[in-house]
Write a structure and sequence with these properties.
Layout: H1 10-22, H2 26-39, H3 44-52, H4 57-70, H5 75-85, E1 141-142, E2 149-150, H6 168-172, H7 179-190, H8 199-211, H9 215-228, H10 233-243, E3 247-251, H11 255-266, E4 271-275, H12 278-287, E5 292-296, H13 304-313, E6 322-326, H14 331-340, E7 344-347, H15 352-362
Parallel strand pairs: 3-4, 3-5, 5-6, 6-7
Antiparallel strand pairs: 1-2
Helix pairs in contact: 1-2, 2-3, 2-7, 3-4, 4-5, 7-8, 8-9, 9-10, 11-15, 12-13
Length: 365
Amino acid sequence: MVSEKPRLSDTELLAKAVEAARAGDKPEARRLLNEAAQVNPKNEKVWLWRASLAITPQVASTYLQHVLRINPANPTAKAWLERLSAPKSGTRPAITPMAGPPSIPAGGPPPAAVVPAVAPAASMKVSNRSLTPPPQLPASFECPVCQRVTQFKPERCSGCGSMLRLSIEKIWSNEGVSEKELHGAITRIKAKAGWESDYDANRTLGLIHLNLTDTGGALPYLLAAKRLRANDEEVSAAALRLMTRPLVLVVDDSLTIRTMVAKTFEHNGLRTKCCASGFDALNLIREEIPKLVMLDVSMPLMDGYQVCKMIKSMKETKGVPVVMLSGNDGFFDKVKGRVAGASDYLTKPFKPEAALRAIRKYVSE
């Protein structure tokens, strides 16, 4: 089993971002700073550096305002925002160096709203050319998922690969999303206080889960967004479409099996929720009763037979069909499943079509 690579700290990510900027790789520097902000949303230096690398003054101002929410007395952010908001007759606001900047501790971001190519440490030197700000765009759009900035809102983000409109058919035909970026975005959004009552946060979380082919995870966020803004027809239509789909609960400690089964079902008009343990399965069933449960036999702590018995023992769920999944094709295992209350038995490995045939016996779309 391959051990998971340790996650870098925000200061380590900041150092790498500075190195990337020094090498001229600003997109990579922005990505690293985005990750550092997710690790520690209260690191002022990270947000000041994000402002330094912002493509437009509007985005830079957003980051600087976040710094002041963290520390209202931050002198760099205050002076910088004043500079950005100062009226300039006949010219478009631009990110330009400040005169007489306040002092900053070593290792901090540059005091001026410029695009740095090096870390501010004394040991690093830069040319004047490297401090030239990028050309400003007349308008900009920031992807709500990965925060990549483009001039106009695209249908599909070129950074994280997400479809950005709530068109279910287009989202499910989309390929090549960056799951790492999407899961990171979920963490970033939920790290913000009050996200539960924020329309944009819930809509974006619903969009992310749809792009991850997780309709079961998407629906609660879309319903929350619908409650917060009832006149959003796009959100309402997407939520309604998902609500009308039969729900199937997939329980298996193998991520490969869960992903394969869920994607097959999603593309065939079903809604899925997935989990890796019997305990999680019972909690999900209490939240919403599914039309059918696909249940792995071999799971730690509580095996599939025990979970099946508990499902069948509850008044609300005793009529829910359960299809057992097992690597054993023995007669005894099938009998044991029937005794526990299982409706059917599927032997691993199986093809997606086999799972669909089993489902169609018990679920009418």
